[in-house]
Amino acid sequence: MTAHRILSWSPSAIVFDCDGTLMDTESHWQEARNVTFRSFGLKPPAGFADRAKGVHYVECGALMAEETGKPDLAEDLSDALLDNFTALVDENPVTMPGAASLVRLAARHRPLAVASNCPREMVESCLDRAGLLSCFGHVVVAGANVRPKPQPDVYSVAARLCGVPPEDALAVEDSLTGMESARRAGLRVLGTGPCPPGPDADAADLWVSSLADPDLVSWARTHIGA
User: Fold this and answer.
1) Residue 69 burial (C-beta neighbours within 10 Å; 0-12, 13-18, 19+)
2) Boundaries of every domain in the chain
């Protein structure tokens, strides 16, 4: 583990993932996938949720089609997945533990950005309803000239827009897909959630159970809020 790369350091900018990091939407994605599978009369393959975590919704729809042997349904599955997810988030937008406090503290002292695989309207709507959108100077999403995670584009662009070299920026992520993206862009990585076993543990410099972790809060007050 390389926790010292975070705990002894003051980043010049912070780039947050949205889904599962700032907003508690992973359960919404899971339910949206299940609803979409059912609406097409399909059964989720074993372990699909793990393979789909952090994946862009278009690629997720393609994966759903591929793994159920229905390649012609890729576009329809992607569209239905996004529609179902949007409806679920509108009903119940919830922030992750500690996210709002950390963002508001950091926003007073550092440039902040969001790097997401979700559509811009979705990200901005979620953050706005949570009262956090104004904390971020930039929202970077995958698009025509920005490849989705695990490609490094969203994090590279976010660091540049924040006005700092990638190595001076911290990425905050909950998915291995997002962590790979941030690593490839040159950012240091804070992982949230359970630390996985084996080589995947090295995907982040430091793992915390949540953004409310007392050691993380203490670090933020000392190295960001001071």
Assistant:
1) exposed
2) 4-24+94-223, 26-91
E strand or H helix at 78: helix 74-91
Task: Supply the residues annotated as catalytic.
Answer: 17, 19
Q: Cis omega (within 30 of 0) on the bond before 150?
A: yes
Is 108 in contact with 133 (CB distance < 8 Å)?
A: no
> Measured between alpha carbons, how far is 48 from 33 in angstroms, rounded to an integer?
9
The helix (H) or strand (E) run that includes residue 207 is strand 206-208
Supply the mean pLDDT for the chain: 93
Residue 133 Cα distances to 97, 162, 163, 177, 183, angstroms: 17, 15, 19, 24, 25
Q: Which of 27-36, 100-109, 187-196 has the lowest mean pLDDT?
A: 27-36
For residue 18 the two structure tokens come to 């949205």
Six token digits for residue 87 = 């409806």
For the stretch 182-221, what's the b/e string if a residue is b when 16 or more beta carbons lie within 10 angstroms of its beta carbon? Answer: bbbbbbbbbbbbeeeeeeeeebbbbbbeebebeebbebbe
**Residue 17: its H or E element:** none
**CA within 13 Å, CB half, 4:** 0
| Topology, domain 4-24+94-223 | Rossmann fold (3.40.50)
Q: What is the largest CA-CA distance in the chain?
A: 55
pLDDT digits (tens, 9 = 90+) for 50-76: 898 878 899 999 999 999 999 999 999
Number of neighbours of residue 38 by Cβ within 10 angstroms: 11
